């Protein structure tokens, strides 16, 4: 299996193709990932190489601490990737990837779990609607 997938931001102005290392979904609960994604964690799949962008006129990046570049669409604000400048890898936002084989995705790791605020856990019993 080649693990090559298409991705796009919400407004479709940023489009890319990326080769994933595997289909293991990780979530980072660190304060910067939560702030940047605006959610309860940054859920991603990992790529060793940079995405190949087809359109990227509205792609911007922000580097808060010198080693972590965060790519996003500056029109619709979708988070596209987190790039660790030191290890060269790219964490690709899982929800910008299209046509993922849902049953083959394995959610198996939560980073910075100790930084997670106490008001949520993915194991919470919640009302599903
Ligand atoms: Zn966009
Ligand atoms: Zn993080």
From TrEMBL:
Sequence ranges assigned to domain CENP-V/GFA in this UniProt record: 5-113
**Pfam families in the record:** GFA
Which family is this protein grouped under?
Belongs to the Gfa family.
Report what the protein is called: CENP-V/GFA domain-containing protein
Query: Which PANTHER family has this protein been placed in?
Result: CENP-V_GFA DOMAIN-CONTAINING PROTEIN-RELATED, GFA DOMAIN-CONTAINING PROTEIN
For this UniProt record, give its keywords in alphabetical order, as a comma-separated list: Lyase, Metal-binding, Zinc
Give the species: Pseudolactococcus paracarnosus
